[in-house]
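Late entry, written up from scratch paper. The run itself happened at the end of the previous shift, but nothing got recorded in the book at the time, so transcribing now.
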Amino acid sequence: VQLQASGGGLAQSGGSLRLSCVASGRTFSKLVIGWFRQAPGKAREFVGGISRTGGSINYADFVKGRFTISIDSAKSTLYLQMNSLKSEDTAVYYCSAGVSGYEHWGQGTLVTVSS
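Output as recorded:
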């Protein structure tokens, strides 16, 4: 699975950004796919993802109500709509996917939120 993330950049606190992740190499509908992030000096953490078996979307508590994950299966693309951004959302955001888990990783896209 190859993953290409894009859409990062600079946003002001309270602003919005939308990240995209294009997946290729495997049947998109059979993948577990989601977003992680890694802030400077911190461990990578789960943001949210889609379980393909049930189609449910799970979010980390710290983004519930602010971030929304969606997919466009025709484009094999995963999106992360980020609203009400906070300075603590500053991080490199990675998409990850796999058949049975998060086995493959994209290159990451940097999101910087200014206060």
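The mean pLDDT is 93.
(Scratch paper discarded after transcription.)
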